[in-house]
Specification:
Elements: H1 2-22, H2 28-70, H3 75-80, H4 93-98, E1 105-108, E2 111-114, E3 121-125, H5 128-131, E4 136-144, E5 154-163, E6 166-174, H6 183-189, H7 193-196, H8 202-213, E7 217-220, H9 223-234, E8 240-246, H10 247-254, H11 263-269, H12 280-323, E9 333-337, H13 344-349, E10 357-358, E11 368-371, H14 379-394, E12 400-402, H15 404-422
Parallel strand pairs: 3-8, 4-7, 7-8, 9-10, 9-11, 11-12
Antiparallel strand pairs: 1-2, 4-5, 5-6
Helix pairs in contact: 1-2, 10-12
Length: 423
């Protein structure tokens, strides 16, 4: 009825506006009346629509806030997941929005805190350098009733523990979520209510999972934004730490430029063995193959970058040695601390003009610590450079403490010496 009513209003608005504009110059009174009446009909149509849209926007904002609090992914990413097609379910955002009345969740840099009875499970992501060195880890995967991190549940969980690429332990079980599994989930993972009716519940597997995985490094595909959240909910009331490696992120670094980074597409692109997707144990085995390949590829890239940096460093050193061969300060290491009479940036730049080196911290390789006014330095800053230099001097090391003026004299001598040999 609303659509029919709006149609009639629009027709009446058009008639009034046409009549109004048509009477301009002939009957201005009728023209004004027709135009005003036409605008009134238009307002009658669109004002209720705008109010409804504002109410929807407010509701959507509440839902988005709830989702962003519960997940690092945006709501659009949760639904679409363009790069990880691992869990293609429909999310019930209305239920999620209602949950704000009873539960608030905050997650910052992998640490999740909420007002429920969840225990303190802290998670720490490992970077590429750490990931390629890991030799003992657990590859984990889950299937769930949906994407809602507060109300959906795990219905299948599998993990395999590896040491030096060899399997040393594994676990696989269906899980009774004690709630209905929607068709949208069953169509993806093939698990139905009947499959899990005799499976263990959360309370029956919580202690097993906690004792087996807490304190370990967990590897998974899209694990940071999905699996770990559900694992924390499963382990509600438990405490512990988990390091984790997300092969989704790792694969982007190892193999940039691919159209899709879903587990299935990665395995196909890299010709890795995969039995089927959206079955927890099969996905665990595929994820392990992907992880090993990523480790190898990133190690190669990092080694190539290390060699390139070494060559570049040697090239720069050779050029400096040639250019400043006659400088008495060639390769001499300077460090600066405190406030100076001259502009500090200009003082430090003089180092480069004579082939010397500037460093930010005092070490056994430091030749000179240039000391300005240090009375106002906080204690930690005073210890970091001045205190460290004093310690090295007491050990008989070469570092010398000099003033700003003494530094400028050294620079002047070096510049004069370079000019002399240039002539």
């Amino acid at each position: 009825m609303r659509k029919v009513g709006n149609g009639i209003k629009i027709v009446l608005a058009a008639i009034c506006l046409i009549g109004g504009f048509g009477n301009i110059g002939e009957n201005n009174g009728a023209a004004i009346f027709g135009i005003v009446l036409g605008l009134a009909f238009i307002a009658w149509v669109f004002v209720p629509i705008m109010r409804l849209r504002n109410r929807k926007n407010n509701r959507n904002h509440l839902e988005e806030s709830a989702q962003m609090a519960a997940s690092k992914l945006s709501p659009e990413q949760l639904v679409n997941q363009p790069e990880s097609e691992k869990h293609e379910y429909n999310i019930n955002t209305e239920t999620l929005a209602k949950s704000l009345a009873s539960k608030i969740i905050i997650e910052v840099d992998g640490y999740r805190e909420d007002n429920s009875d969840a225990g303190l499970i802290t998670t720490f992501p490992l970077n590429d350098s750490q990931a390629i060195k890991i030799s003992e880890y657990i590859v984990l995967d889950i299937e769930t009733t949906g994407l809602n991190r507060d109300f959906d549940k795990i219905i299948e969980i599998a993990w395999v523990k590896y040491k030096d690429t060899h399997e040393i332990q594994h676990y696989h079980s269906l899980v009774n979520p004690e709630q209905h599994i929607p068709d949208s989930a069953s169509n993806i993972n093939g698990i139905t209510d009947n499959d899990v009716k005799d499976a263990p519940t959360y309370s029956e597997i919580k202690k097993i999972i906690a004792s087996d995985i807490l304190g370990n490094t967990i590897v998974g595909h899209n694990i940071a934004s999905f699996d770990l959240i559900f694992i924390k909910n499963l382990l509600s009331g438990e405490s512990g730490e988990l390091n984790y490696i997300d092969t989704l992120k790792l694969a982007k670094h190892a193999f940039p430029g691919l159209k899709s980074y879903s587990l299935k597409n990665l395995c196909n692109s890299l010709k890795l063995p995969i039995s089927s997707s959206h079955h927890a144990l099969d996905d665990v085995l595929a994820t392990n193959e992907l992880f090993i390949r990523c480790q190898s590829e990133i190690a190669k890239k990092m080694e190539a970058e290390r060699r390139q940096r070494k060559l570049e460093k040697e090239r720069i050193a050779a050029e400096r040695a040639t250019k400043y061969a006659n400088s008495p300060l060639l390769n001499i290491v300077f460090v600066f601390t405190g406030d100076f009479e001259n502009n500090r940036q200009q003082l430090e730049s003089l180092v480069n003009s004579v082939g010397a080196l500037k460093r930010d911290g005092v070490s056994r390789n430091t030749d000179y610590l240039v000391v300005g006014k240090i009375d106002n330095l906080p204690e930690w800053a005073l210890k970091r450079k001045y205190g460290r230099a004093k310690e090295l001097q007491s050990e008989g090391k070469k570092v010398q403490l000099i003033s700003e003026q003494e530094y400028l004299k050294l620079i002047k001598i070096a510049i004069e010496n370079l000019k002399l040999h240039c002539n």
